[in-house]
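We recall that each integer encodes one residue's backbone shape. We quote one record:
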Amino acid sequence: MTEIIVRPSRDDDIAAIAEIYAYEVLQGTASFDEEPPSEEKMLEKRANILECGFPYMVAEVDGEVVAYSYVSPYRQRTAYSNTVENAIYVDPKKRISGIGYKLLGAVLKECEKTDIKQIIAVIGDSDNMGSINLHKKLGFRKVGTLRDVGFKFGRWLDSVLMQKSL
């Protein structure tokens, strides 16, 4: 495989980011969304995350954005201000190639430069072993499973909660 470049996202990455996310919305269970958001909504969400001072990064291979990851506020109450939730989505054709590990690792390093103390991963579908194992490899520990909290593709899905202290 060629070199994986991890860098801060740019506005012009949104088309690729939206395509990666749309696949997961329409075909996967990592997201409980059932309709992909527009590129405008994705740009707005990215702007809000950056405005909070949080990282929003992409991984590219051969000049193509193949994954993205960010952290966002975990909850709105001020007591949670040092806790964030992470997200990572990788092009399905590029999974199991080290991209997710390198990208999420870079996001975690950026988080270490801030006042963030806890990172929560809310992983859609307890069968999503790729994401669960990625998070374990990066030091997250499983703290619980919320059973049957989402209904998608005609079946009930769990959410797995994992946590990492910085």
User: Anything to note?
Assistant: The chain has a mean pLDDT of 96. The CA atoms of residues 113 and 166 lie 10 Å apart. The chain has one domain: 4-165. The longest strand covers residues 141-152.
